[in-house]
Design brief:
Elements: H1 4-7, H2 18-32, E1 39-45, E2 51-57, E3 60-61, E4 66-71, H3 75-82, E5 85-92, E6 97-107, H4 110-119, H5 122-130, H6 140-153, E7 165-179, E8 187-192, E9 201-204
Antiparallel strand pairs: 1-2, 1-5, 3-4, 4-7, 5-6, 6-7, 7-8, 8-9
Helix pairs in contact: 5-6
């Protein structure tokens, strides 16, 4: 059980650097969140301007932004290549905290994608080849057959990264930290900037 004292250690509203604050909160999530502390909801927009949202896992964090990996031919992959903007939301229920992120999106370098792909479990690397992500699947057997075929194909040696599998990095122009308080009088601190590399403007928001 996380105590109120643990939840409020230090005053996060005093922080002037959102990436450092996010790392602190993510570390707390690793220590207290029961399932998938790196899980986040990712929102994109399709060609008709309709939003889409789904859960993905954060796989990289540095001063540039927040990175995840996917099949570029999937729904989110095609949407992000067409409209390079996204929103993310982390919600750590056990900590009663939330972080919302908005920004432009870039594709990670081939070297970054290769390095991450190489450290994935072998079954996940096979799955990247076998799954035509987001497209119609005639039966579960068809997927299992594809897995078996690629398992046999790559039975010996390494498994190369598919050309259609890589990563996206969200370059934040807005990061908002939310912390639950009694009587719904929550703490909300928003950091904004015009572009990557600019300084951050910090604003306290009404709950």
């Amino acid at each position: 059980m996380v105590t109120e004292t643990e939840l409020t250690k230090g005053d996060f509203t005093l922080s002037d650097e959102p990436f450092d604050l996010f790392r602190e909160w993510l570390q707390d999530a690793h220590e207290h969140e029961l399932n998938d502390p790196t899980a986040l909801s990712l929102a994109t927009v399709d060609g008709d301007g309709m939003p889409n949202i789904r859960m993905v896992l954060l796989k990289g964090l540095d001063e540039r932004g927040f990175t995840f990996y996917t099949n570029f031919e999937s729904q989110k992959g095609t949407e992000l290549q067409a409209i390079a903007k996204a929103a993310m939301c982390f919600h750590w229920k056990s900590l009663r905290r939330q972080v919302r992120i908005r920004g432009h999106v870039e594709i990670v370098s081939d070297s970054e994608a290769d390095a991450y792909y190489a450290q994935r479990p072998r079954g996940s690397r096979i799955g990247a080849w076998a799954s035509q992500q987001s497209r119609p699947l005639e039966s579960r057997f068809a997927l299992e057959k594809a897995v078996a075929e690629y398992t046999a194909k790559f039975a010996i040696g390494g498994i190369p990264r598919p050309s259609y599998w890589s990563g996206f990095r969200v370059l934040p122009t807005s990061i908002e930290f939310w912390h639950d308080r009694k009587f719904r009088l929550h703490d909300r601190i928003q950091f904004t900037r015009n572009a990557d590399g600019d300084g951050w403007l910090k604003t306290r928001l009404y709950p």
